Amino acid sequence: MAVAVITALIAIAVGIWLSYQIHWFPVQASTQAKRTDHLYHVLVIATIPIFVLVVSVILYCVWQFRMKPGEELKDGPPIHGNTRLEVFWTALPTVLLLSMVGYSFVVLAENEKKPAHEIQIGVTGQQFFWSFQYPPSVTGGAELNSYELYLPVNETVHFNMRSKDVIHAFWIPAFRLQEDLVPGITTHYRATPDRIGEYPAVCNLLCGVGHSLMRTTVHVVTPAAFHAWIKSQLSASTASTTTGGASG
Question: The whole model's pTM is what?
Fold first, then answer.
C-alpha cells in the first residue's frame, strides 16, 4: 500500500511538471490569453490527482483482488455499502466541480469585462475570406473597409462579427478567443492585444470547399504605427475614388 501511495504521488508531481514544460499552446498575445492559460493550469492541477487516484485504485484492486487459479466459479464475499464513504465521494467531486465551474465563470467574466475605453472593429466572414470595418470613431475620418487586420497594442478591441452566407468561426489562437459568425446575428468578443507581432486568424468551422483559404494575419503594432496605417489606407482609398471618378 505504501508503495502504491508513493508511486501515485510521484505520478502526480510528474504530470503537473509536464503540464508546465510542454508548450501546448501558441504564444500569448493578449491579456485574455494569460487568464485562459492560467485557468488551464488550475484545471490540470485539480484533475491530474483525480486521474492518478482513480487509476491507482483500479490497478491496486486488480493486483490485490485478482482471481487466483481454482477460483473461477467462486463468488466474492458479500459486502454492505459504506454510507459515510458514499457521501464523501459524492460530496467531494461536487464541491470540486462547482469550484472549477465557478473559477471558469470568473475568468470568462473578466475576459468579457468592458473597459473604460475600447475601439470598435467590424469583422465580416464570407466564403472564403475575411474583411474588417473600421468606423469613423477609429479612423477619425471616413469608414474604412480592409482585408487586413491591424490592431494597436495594449488597447481593448471590441469585435462586431457578421456572416454574409454560412456559419464561420473567427479564431485567433494567440488571443485564445473564438466566436461563431451566424447569418442574421451580430456576435461579439473583446481582446486586448499586449504583444507586438503578427498572428494567424482562421475560420474554425468547416464552411465549404474553400474553408482552408479563410486565413488572415493579425498585425499588432504600436499606436503610432496603427494610426499611420489607418492614414495610409484612407489616403489610398481617397486616391482610388478620385481616379475612378476622373476615369468615369
Answer: 0.80
